Amino acid sequence: MTQTISVEESRQLDAKTINEIGIPSMVLMERAGIKIYENMLDNKDLDLSKVLILAGTGNNGGDGLVVARLLVTHGYSVHILTVGNPAHASDDHKAQAKICDYYEIPKAFLNEDFNQYTILVDGLFGSGLSRNVGGDFATVIDKANAADANTHAIDIPSGLNGDTGEVMGTAIKAASTSTIAYAKNGMVTEQAKPYTGKIYVDDIGIYRGKRFEEASLIN
Ligand SMILES: NC(=O)C1=CN([C@@H]2O[C@H](COP(=O)(O)OP(=O)(O)OC[C@H]3O[C@@H](n4cnc5c(N)ncnc54)[C@H](O)[C@@H]3O)[C@@H](O)[C@H]2O)[C@@H](O)CC1
Ligand SMILES: [K+]
Q1: What is the pLDDT of residues 185-208, one digit of tens each?
Q2: Rounded CA separation 79/204 (Å)
Q3: Nearest CA-CA partner of 31 in 1, 70, 84, 82
Q4: How confident is the model over 31-51, as pLDDT tens digits?
Q5: Residue 59 C-alpha to ligand 2 middle, in angstroms?
Q6: How close is the Cα of 155 to the center of ligand 1, in Å?
Q7: Whole-angstrom Cα distance, residue 147 to residue 129?
Q8: For the domain 4-208, what is the CATH code?
Q9: How many CB atoms lie within 10 A of CB 13?
Q10: Which residues of the sequence carry a binding annotation for K(+) (predicted)?
Q11: Which atom of ligand 1 has the smallest separation from the CA of 125?
Q12: Is the CB–ligand 1 distance for residue 154 below 6 Å?
């Protein structure tokens, strides 16, 4: 059974958990990263021998950087491709990037051959996606979809509209997705299935309101 919420509701719940209840956002990011890492170990369709993390500069990318570090500290081979301007990264992303630098996790570049990797992790956009995808982001998404490797998406496959399940220009076709707290309404539509793959719903301590406990159940 999957309860679903809108992207705006997910952002409100994140904000309430952090600002009103007082769980620090970095704690939530760490918990998200641990769950996503565990989901990747659980999905036997994923070959984790050589990992490429695709990281946007927001908190979705920050989640990806936590996964990168957890994989590295457990002996996996990991590269990070950051897309977007790191100078404009969110504060939590910057903090996670500094931690990745401590572990000397190698960087990948836009012109990289994605076929040298056995799995791609999509941390380009999550609930912050606000317009159609273009430029380097579109190039990376199209390269990921054309690659032999499976992709595991974080929160929402990048480019997928979490409310409607529509593709905003182009979108990641994931083998599996770790969605945070609740699946988003558009992710359980028929048209979203080729993009989300298998959905893991990860409880990371985000506030679960009464309204959501009573929400209608899907599936
Ligand atoms: N601290 C929190 O609130 C938590 C956030 N989490 C993660 O953070 C994500 C949300 O993070 P953010 O709010 O930083 O947003 P995203 O990381 O989803 O997006 C980053 C930024 O991309 C820009 N953007 C939007 N559409 C674009 C486009 N088409 N082309 C280029 N740039 C575009 C926006 O300025 C946006 O702020 C969630 O999906 C989840 O993965 C989780 O770690 C749980 C806790
Ligand atoms: K994503």
Answers
A1: 999 999 999 999 999 999 999 999
A2: 25
A3: 70
A4: 999 999 999 999 999 999 999
A5: 10
A6: 10
A7: 23
A8: 3.40.50.10260
A9: 19
A10: 60, 122, 158
A11: 18
A12: yes
Quick one: which atom of ligand 1 is closest to the CA of 90? 14
Are 84 and 57 spatial neighbours (Cβ–Cβ below 8 Å)? Answer: yes
d(CA 111, CA 157): 22
DSSP 175: S
- Residues 6 or more apart whose Cβ sits within 8 Å of residue 10: 127, 162, 180, 181, 182, 184
Query: Does residue 85 have its Cβ closer than 6 Å to ligand 1?
Result: no
Please, which contacts does 10-13 make with residues 24 or more away whose CB atoms are closer than 8 Å?
Answer: 10/127, 10/162, 10/180, 10/181, 10/182, 10/184, 11/127, 13/181, 13/182, 13/206, 13/207, 13/209, 13/212
Answer whether 180 contacts ligand 1 (Cβ < 6 A).
yes
Q: Is 155 in the pocket of ligand 1 (CB under 6 A)?
A: yes
> Is the per-residue pLDDT at 219 higher than 50?
no
ipTM of the modeled complex: 0.97
9 lines ligand 1 (CB under 6 A): no
What one-letter code names the amino acid at 182?
Answer: Y
CA of 219 relative to ligand 2 center, distance in Å: 23
